Amino acid sequence: MKKKFYKFLAVILTVILALGSTACDLISVDTDRAKEQTVVTVQAFSDAPVEKITNAQLLRLYNSYGAQYVYQGYTEEEALTEIMNSLIKDKIMVQYAIEYFFNLGLEYDGLNENYEEYTKWDVKRYLTDKEIATAEYNVKKNVNDSIESYMEQDEEEEKENYAPTVRTVPTDATNYERELSVTEMTEYQIDTGVAGNGGVDCSTERRTAYYKLLKTMESNGVVEKTFDWTTGKIDDTEYYKESLREQLQNTLLQKYDLYLAYDAVKNIDIDQLNARYKEIYESQVNTYTSYESFNSALSDATKKDAVIYNPYSNKFGYVYNLLLGINDVQGVELEEIKTKYTNNEIDKNEYYAQRSEIFKDITVKDLRDTWIESNYDFDLNNKVFLNDFTFASASSLKFQGDVVWSNQGDYQVEYVTEEKGTYTRYYTLDGTEKVYDDEYEPEFKALSKTLTYSEVMELVDDYVYGGKGTLTLNYDATRPYLERKLVATKNDVNADYDARINELIFAFSSDSGSLNTYKGYVVAENYEINYQETYVEEFAEAGRQLLELAKNGNNASYIVVETDYGYHVMFWSELMDGSLNNCLTLSDYLSAIDETVTLNDIKDAIKKGETDDYKDSYLYNLFQSVASTKSDNYVNDTKTIAYESTRNNTSKVVVKTDLINNLFGLEI
């Protein structure tokens, strides 16, 4: 789940550490007594603890963020006020979140299993063991990352001057990161490099970096004078403990937002979704009044924003385009014969013949080589991509070429598959044990194999069709078609027909527009009055031939056609007919697209903040179109009312303005 970045309190430590010696002391305080003065107290509820904001907190934040505010045009007084109000607001909202979850009682399914061990106002009462372990892990990881940022880096070896254009990746593709277990996060420790003090590395380099970090923290006023640099542990400092408290509080605030959002939408029922579907259908009826408007809608369609009304039954369809493009030299040769054709020195048939002669030398390479060299999820042993980088997960297209592991050394690799995906671990052998190195970065060199047109088509026939179907070569001498394959249905070929075609497109197609499309390109069955063709003649005609083949029962066929861009391997995708469109009710449409997601599934996912799995669900996106505004308004209004009613109550929020003025020398 991708959680939003919740304010800045939980990342104070990260920012201070990252700033290093560049932190700018806009305001300085000379005495420890002045630093510890309480300048604001917050108590939203009578039985809640009094939360204190000290000068030290304001000082740290001002020195970290004040310059950014001033750069944006704030005065120093305004910057300080903004920071102070943010602190106040977070403390108010934490108490409101606790009151909210406490009142839910056992109905709140996020309670700690040992909740009775915590008081009402202890944040941990309302967090699971996993959430607590995650917060602790994140703070420790931030410290380790900061220590490592101070470590001297060996000069990188000069790499080959090889900078190819990075191949577009599938939509939303990200490397899979294994989710650590609660035990692993709990056992994770800060490595200071100091023996007996969390020193796992115990190297001079890491120890020196740790002391540099402490020096930076000291200069920012976040290390006590009593701290023992030899034996003292950074996680024993009050500052570290405060940062952990803030991580835990922000985890709770994120859940508070989720539950408020759920409260706003939990009563949305199927009747409201049916009404919304009807609105969309009627809107499309009123909008798709021409071929142009309907064609445009089809081109822009997605799974979540589908075309559900079709006024032109069997007039439009989708085709996939795998373009085997020409190189620069062939482009120059093509321009020469094109000039002859334009000057009437050769006729159209002769132009086609000479162009075909040039195109005989077309070759392609697997363009996914940059994915491998960028360390995207890849199974080196089987040479297949993993997780989000493949469409046909069970039959991913192998990388067409060789891969060299240039910095392997003593490292080995293993692949571990979990419910959500497969992750890679690299290790060295130490006796009989595997010693994992999480900091190791493998380097790969991918060497794509050169494939001719005939080799690509052999791959297509085997990978997509399994050799099935009837192949016809040069079936129309007056057209620039190379071949076509007649296949009755997608059920007659290898499983994952559409997914396998997309694998081939991402591997070889030089047409960037063919990547990450909904179902491919839209083609029209025939010309109508005022309809303007948007494709080159040969491509459009081949697309119409595919539509005709589909109407005649061959709806998994392909046609190869030449255009000035190269060879287009055009695969049949989908025909727009009444079975998928013109569904008058939501239930009919969901049945037509075989969607099994339920309304309860969606509501439960919203409460848990785990909606990523539903991003392609039509029902979920329909639900969001009903709920989004309502949800946002409810969450914002609820929190705004809570904040303002508390902030404006001088008995609940006490701001000691005179202490702030005296300390900082500012008039607020």
Task: Describe what this molecule looks like in 3D.
This protein is an alpha+beta fold and 668 residues long. Helices cover 42% and strands 13% of the residues. It is built from 20 helices and 18 strands. The protein has helices at 12-19, 32-35, 55-71, 76-104, 129-150, 182-187, 204-219, 238-265, 270-287, 291-300, 328-342, 348-359, 369-373, 453-463, 497-508, 537-551, 586-592, 599-608, 618-647, 657-664; strands spanning 38-42, 51-54, 316-325, 363-364, 378-379, 384-385, 401-405, 412-417, 422-430, 433-436, 444-448, 451-452, 470-473, 481-486, 521-524, 558-563, 566-575, 653-655. A 6-stranded antiparallel sheet has the order 13-14-16-17-3-15. Strands 2-1-18 form a 3-stranded antiparallel sheet. Strand 13 and strand 14 form a beta hairpin. Helix 4 packs across helix 8.
